[in-house]
Amino acid sequence: MTDFPATIDNVAQLDELLSRPTPRVIQALQQTEGDLILLGIAGKMGPTLARMILRADQETGLHRRVIGVSRFSDESSRQPLEDLGIETIKGDLLDADFINSLPDVPNVIYMAGMKFGATGNESLTWAMNTYLPALVCNKYQQSRITAFSTGNIYGLVSASSQGSVETDKPNPVGEYAMSCLGRERMFEHFSRTLNIPMTIIRLNYATECRYGVLVDLALQVYQEQTIDVSMGYVNVIWQGDANAMTLCSLPDGTSPPFNLNVAGPRILSVRKLCEQFGTLLGKQPRFTGTEAQDALLNNGQYGHQCYGAPLVDDDQIIHWIADWIRNERPLLGKPTHFESRSGKF
């Protein structure tokens, strides 16, 4: 699992790395019996997460339905999933009749949500992030649910700390983060009242070569933009490792929910990251602002103890991304806006 290439040269190679199952993933999926549905599959993580499931099952000879549900507003995102062997269903997840028409399966991965565009569209943000979980729980009362959340629910913590841990009291800033805590509370309520086993994944922040905090910073350096370092610290995790940790947690859902931070092992300085990208890209970074002494930081150590430390370290990710940016390979064009200290997205 450590035979990583020096560079990632194309999207096919990137997707292969992001969806490569680990032995722990294979073992966890062997323990997770039955078909599986991913709600909101067309987002940034869904396709490679689903492909990791398929690849793990292929290695062990398991045959299960893997179903992906989305609005598929970009129709071109649907066919590649079908080509892999993923069944796709198109529809509006806020439509209760549509939710109730979905196949009954024992395993649900919930990836739906709204972040970008939340400011100015607060009612839809709350509907997606708090009403939809109730619909899903009522539909899948007999299933096991793994639901994605965010480290934003913790709020800002001291940069000199090790980051927020799962037992910390939430302190969300802004309507997006508050609605995400609302999402967690809805899942928790139905887990308790309907005895639904659940895992809640508090992710902070997944990255790969086409998007993520490190891509945002590398692009700013490469394009010689001035970089605001007010949000001066961050932690990241390679998306392949985030996929693996999520799937490893599938058998461990409980009622009330099992909360799990999925995050990288180190707190990184934004200024030092940009200086490293500057060296790799042959650019001199320009900065504005002063680092605040707090930031949105997750402590992922408990997950690492349970499921193993991330296989791809920060330095490897940085080198891959610098090479990707330098060669102007494809990007998703979806900035993270991680630098927002107001909680507005």
Description:
This protein is of the alpha/beta class and 345 residues long. It has helices at 11-18, 23-31, 46-60, 78-84, 96-101, 122-139, 174-194, 213-222, 239-248, 270-281, 301-307, 314-326, and strands spanning 36-39, 66-70, 87-90, 107-110, 144-150, 157-158, 198-203, 206-207, 226-228, 233-234, 237-238, 258-262, 268-269, 286-288, 294-295. Helices cover 39% and strands 15% of the residues. The chain has a 7-stranded parallel sheet with strand order 3-2-1-4-5-7-12, sandwiched between helices. Helix 2 crosses helix 3 (46-60). It is globular and about 55 Å long.
Structural category: alpha/beta
Helix tally? 12
The total strand number stands at: 15
Distance between the termini: 36 Å
User: What is the helix content?
Assistant: 25-40%
Beta-strand proportion = 15-25%
Q: Could you tell me the mean pLDDT?
A: 94
Strand order in the largest sheet = 3-2-1-4-5-7-12
Overall 3D form? globular
Assembly state of the chains shown? single chain
What string, H for helix and E for strand, traces the elements in order? Answer: HHEHEHEHEHEEHEEHEEEHEEHEEHH
Computed Rg: 19 Å
Low-confidence stretches: none
Tell me the major beta sheet: 7 strands, parallel
